[in-house]
Amino acid sequence: MSASTHRRVLPQAPARRGWCPGLSRPMPTGDGLLARVHPPLGILTLAQAHAVADGARRFGNGHLDLTARANLQIRGVSEATRTPLARLLETAGLGDARSDGGPQRLTLTSPLAGRDTAETFDVPALARAVEAAGLAVAGLPAKTLVVVEGRLGAEVPEGDVRMFPCAAGDVGIAVATEHGLHDLVACTREEAPAAVAALLNAFARTGRRRMRDLSPDEFGAVENAVRLAMQVQVPPPMRESGCGSVFPQGAPFSPLTGVTSLAPGQSMLAVDAPFGRCTAAALDHLVDLAARLGAGEIRLSPARGFVLLPRQDPSAADLTALARTFIIAPDDPRRSVAACTGAPACASGSTPTLVDAALLATIFAPLGLEGRVAHVSGCAKGCARPGPADLTLVGRDGLYGAVIGGAPGDEPAMHLPIEAVMERLGRAKTVGLAAAFAPGNTVTEFGRYERPA
Q1: Which sign, positive or negative, has the C-alpha torsion 281, 282, 283, 287?
Q2: How far apart are CA 233 and CA 226, in angstroms?
Q3: In this structure, are residues 55 and 49 in contact, taking their beta carbons and an 8 Å threshold?
Q4: Dihedrals φ, ψ of 206, to 5°?
Q5: Rounded CA gap, 19 and 244, in Å?
Q6: Please, which residues have CB within 8 angstroms of residue 219's CB and are 6 or more apart in sequence?
Q7: Complete edge-to-edge strand list for the sheet that includes strand 72-77
Q8: CA 361 – CA 333 distance, rounded (Å)
Q9: What is the pLDDT of residue 275?
Q10: 100, 131 in Cβ contact below 8 A?
Q11: What's the sign of the alpha-carbon dihedral 418, 423, 424, 428?
Q12: Which segments of 317-452 are extended strands (E)?
């Protein structure tokens, strides 16, 4: 059944918190409506990518966001343009997958899925099977995420469920808890979709929004449902016995920017959008380059960027042109700083996060080279990076709450204007982040702002 045969564009865009915008349900924000596009498996054909750019230019304000779940957001849509935008992208094969409020895209895979020679099973095929199983689960929360990992060893984005390779070609299934990942079962690749379907159905019956929010009794019910579906009483040991340890580590889940050789005659070009933002014109330029280099598709990265697998390498002139709008250097300091749209484009933000993140990236650069990460969030929702960072700045009433080693929802140590943040961050190179942002009177001219959240 095609997308257009069972969906309609809703007459009003809801504004309740906790849902995920799509094309038929765009979300009101500071610069108009935000429409999210969920490319199947995070892959766009060149024609689809052109359609997204065209839609952003004709029916939005020309700005695009790239999300940490490898989706795209078209900004500045209006009530008058939301319906023609949805029709354009549905025609391109990018329409919403469901109309019941469930996840438009359930799975997240590496941008190299299906092309990584170290993967031990067909990741795209398994992801498609899980997507199909998820469509049949009523009441599944919109933010539910299943990460399908073809190899172990890389830092994998946080999700509710993780599927990963085990010895002998089996697939391990683990779920997120408040204490970390908990392994449930190992099964064959053929059994895995049914196991995940049982898991998701049991999870949906609890009414919880995220897997990690389950009570012990609820978690037990989910675990029992999976075991019953797989007809096993006790889950076999997996990670403890070296599940996946025989497989080599290699390319990360989100590849580094620049040109990388994957195999003889096969290269990868990865670019990131600075702080997850690009323009329709920049996307059009990337599509034209992909066509010229022989790449038939564009893959989205959880690093909020794009990945090409071209038949020929880009020239120095190509890379110079890309660098005007994208990050192509692996040591670019902006890669160490996550940021959301912020004010004025986001109605929930009170600080210009994109401007402040660009300032912070320069001073944070020495810490970024050590592997540290920072996050500039317009509010406590933490859309750009929900999890913890070495330094998280949370906008509130025009100031930033400073959280060291925590997430946007954690209690800040203090609230400061961006100028005071920069001063303290400058000293962090010698005294450390925790000491630099310890409450006190070291920045007395801003002391009046150091108050509890």
Answers
A1: positive
A2: 10
A3: no
A4: -75, -25
A5: 35
A6: 175, 177, 182
A7: 27-29, 32-37, 72-77, 63-66, 277-279
A8: 5
A9: 96
A10: no
A11: positive
A12: 337-339, 374-377, 391-396, 399-404, 414-416
Q: Scan for tokens 């997996």, then name that residue.
A: 238
Give the tens place of pLDDT for each residue, 335-353: 999 999 999 999 899 999 9
pLDDT of residue 235: 53
Neighbouring residues of 392: CB distance < 8 A, sequence distance ≥ 6: 374, 375, 377, 382, 385, 402, 403, 404, 406, 407, 408, 410
244: left (phi over 0), alpha (psi -120 to 50) or beta: left
Strand partners for 261? 267
Question: How far apart are the C-alpha atoms of 359 and 289, rounded to whole Å?
Answer: 30
Q: How confident is the model at residue 153 (pLDDT cuts 50, 70, 90)?
A: low
> For residue range 107-138, what is the model confidence (pLDDT) as tens digits?
999 999 999 888 889 999 999 999 999 999 99
DSSP E strand boundaries for 113-217: 146-148, 161-165, 171-177, 180-187
pLDDT band at 252 (very low <50, low <70, confident <90, very high): low
Tens-place pLDDT, residues 389-404: 999 999 999 999 999 9
Residue 294, classed as helix, strand or coil, is coil
Beta strands in 331-443 (DSSP E): 337-339, 374-377, 391-396, 399-404, 414-416
**167 burial type by CB count under 10 A (0-12 exposed, 13-18 middle, 19+ buried):** middle
Task: Using DSSP, state whether 342 is helix, strand or coil.
Answer: coil
Q: How many CA atoms lie within 13 A of 71 on its CB side?
A: 25
The pair of three-digit structure tokens given for residue 361, joined into one six-digit string = 């990236």
* Contact (Cβ atoms closer than 8 angstroms) between residue 214 and residue 222: yes
Q: Count CB atoms within 10 A of the CB of residue 398.
A: 13
The dihedral region occupied by 300, where left means phi > 0, alpha psi between -120 and 50, and beta the remainder, is beta
Contact 297, 43 (CB under 8 A): yes
Token pair for 53 = 């750019």
| Structural domains for the chain | 121-241 (3.30.413.10), 258-327 (3.90.480.10), 334-449 (3.30.413.10)
SS3 257: coil
pTM beyond cutoff 0.90: no
DSSP structure class, residue 296: -
> Are residues 349 and 341 in contact, defined by beta-carbon separation less than 8 angstroms?
yes
- The answer to whether the CB of 365 falls within 8 A of the CB of 422 is no
| Distance between CA atoms of residues 222 and 212, nearest Å | 12
pLDDT-derived band of residue 105, with 50, 70 and 90 as boundaries? Answer: very high
Spatial distance between the Cα atoms of 241 and 183, rounded to a whole number of angstroms: 12
What is the per-residue pLDDT for 242? 39
What's the mean per-residue pLDDT of the chain? 88
